[in-house]
Amino acid sequence: MKRALYILFLIIMNSKAFSQSWIDTTLYPFENRFLQLETGNMHYVDEGKGETILFVHGTPTWSFLFRDFIKELSKENRCIAIDHIGFGLSEKPDSVPGTPEWHAQNLSEFIKKMNLQNITLVVHDFGGPIGLAAGIENNDRINKVVLFNAWLWATKQNQEAQKIDKLINSRLGKFMYLNMNFSPKVLLKKGFANKKNLSKKVHQHYIKPFPDKNSRTYLLNLATALVGSSDWYQKQWDQLGLLSNKEWLILWGTKDAFITLDYLKQWQEKLPKARLKEIDSGHFVQEEATVEAIQAIDAFIHK
Question: AB hydrolase-1 domain: from which residue to which, for each copy (predicted)?
Answer without folding.
Answer: 52-289
